[in-house]
Design a protein that fits this description.
Keywords: Carbohydrate metabolism, Isomerase, NAD. It catalyses: UDP-alpha-D-glucose = UDP-alpha-D-galactose. This is UDP-glucose 4-epimerase. By secondary structure, this protein is α/β, with parallel strands linked by helices. The protein folds into 2 domains: 2-170 and 219-247, Rossmann fold (3-Layer(aba) Sandwich); 172-217 and 250-286 and 302-322, Alpha-Beta Complex (UDP-galactose 4-epimerase, domain 1), CATH 3.90.25.10. Helix content is 40%, strand content 16%. The chain has helices spanning 11-22, 55-64, 79-82, 86-107, 140-159, 187-196, 222-237, 256-267, 291-296, 305-322; strands at 2-6, 26-31, 47-49, 67-72, 111-115, 162-167, 170-172, 202-204, 216-217, 219-221, 245-247, 254-255, 274-276, 285-286. Strands 3-2-1-4-5-6-11 form a 7-stranded parallel β-sheet, with helices on both faces. Strand 5 (111-115), helix 5 (140-159) and strand 6 (162-167) form a beta-alpha-beta unit. Helix 2 packs across helix 4 (86-107), helix 4 packs parallel to helix 5 and helix 8 (256-267) crosses helix 10. The longest helix is centred in the first third of the chain and has 22 residues, at 86-107. The two termini are 36 Å apart. The mean pLDDT is 96.
Length: 323
């Protein structure tokens, strides 16, 4: 009983693959390596290099490996860049999901766990986002993720597809020293790269309506996130009732300054962040409730901020040594 993990050579996908293996579940990976890394995938896991835009490749992979369900993480995940590249974003995230669903229908695969995003909410009007909060995406990325959820919903009506979508925001840390976040846009790798290169990390805006003046966001550990993907897959196999959407949120969030303080404390590198002007469109606070996911998907925050930083720092330095 094999699960196909699309984007399984990426930072989050590779952790999902390892979580499946640790739970005794077989999986295969498809990834075009546009942002993923072949070395992130264990040698024992079947790997198909290619795009989710290739329906025939997907059909062949599902048939070859006896796939019973899909965890769909492949996509273009840079919200800011999506504003400059809307067509590319929609092709990768919407058209790619459409081709994947077509391939699943051809083969008869009827279970999918979809990697969505808190970007579907846009700027929330309430302090704590829930699954029933209005969706008002403010970037092509957020829009594309919301359309993906709609595709799953409509395909379920048409074919009986069993599905759930997991929305999350800032995924950080590492569950293995062999995997680290290589994104050029995420806060943790940006700060870590600056420290390794002897540069001073920057804070964009310190006059927000938050306790310390810096933006507050959800930061969740990637290993915790991966476990809930496994829990969702198991629930689909066992035909347990699931919500169409779950937030994997911290419930209280962390400020950018709190993250900087943890970076200084854990790494032992003393620094004072440089304050820069606000970036357009950054809301004061985006924090989600994880209550429904805690009820159904074994979701909980197993790591505090120091553990998040320590695991990210350790994995990044291990990569440096391995070069």
């Amino acid at each position: 009983m094999t699960w196909l993990v699309t984007g399984g050579a990426g930072y989050i996908g590779a952790h999902v693959v390892r979580a499946f293996l640790e739970e005794g579940l077989e999986c295969a990976v498809i990834d075009d390596l546009s942002s993923g890394h072949r070395g992130f995938v264990p040698e024992t896991v079947p790997f198909v290099e290619g795009s989710v835009l290739d329906t025939e490749l997907l059909v062949g992979a599902m048939r070859t490996h006896g796939v019973v369900g899909v965890v769909h993480l492949a996509g273009f995940k840079y919200a800011g860049v999506s504003v400059q590249r809307p067509l590319h974003t929609f092709e990768q995230n919407v058209t790619g999901t459409l081709h994947l669903l077509q391939a699943m229908q051809v083969v008869g695969v009827d279970k999918i766990v979809y990697s969505s995003s808190a970007a579907t909410f846009g700027t929330p009007q309430e302090p704590l986002v829930t699954e029933t909060s209005p969706t008002r995406p403010e970037s092509p990325y957020g829009e594309s993720k919301l359309v993906g959820e709609w595709l799953l919903r409509d395909q379920a009506v048409a074919t009986g597809l069993r599905h759930t979508s997991l929305r999350y925001f800032n995924v950080v840390g590492s569950g293995s020293d062999t995997i680290h976040d290589t994104s050029p846009h995420n806060l943790f790798p940006l700060v870590i790269e600056a420290l390794l290169e002897g540069r001073t990390p920057q804070i964009y805006g310190a006059d927000y309506d938050t306790p310390d003046g810096t933006c507050v966001r959800d930061y969740v550990h990637v290993a915790d996130l991966a476990l809930s993907h496994v829990a969702a897959a198991r629930a689909l196999v066992e035909e347990r009732p699931l919500e169409p959407v779950y937030n994997l949120g911290s419930g209280d969030g962390l400020s950018v300054r709190q993250v900087m303080d943890a970076m200084r404390r854990v790494t032992g590198v003393d620094f004072t962040p440089e304050l820069q002007p606000r970036r357009p469109g950054d809301p004061d606070r985006i924090v989600a409730s994880g209550e429904l996911a805690a009820r159904d998907l074994d979701w909980r925050m197993r790591h505090d901020v120091d553990e998040m930083v320590a695991s990210a720092w350790r994995a990044r330095r291990a990569a440096e040594v391995a070069r």
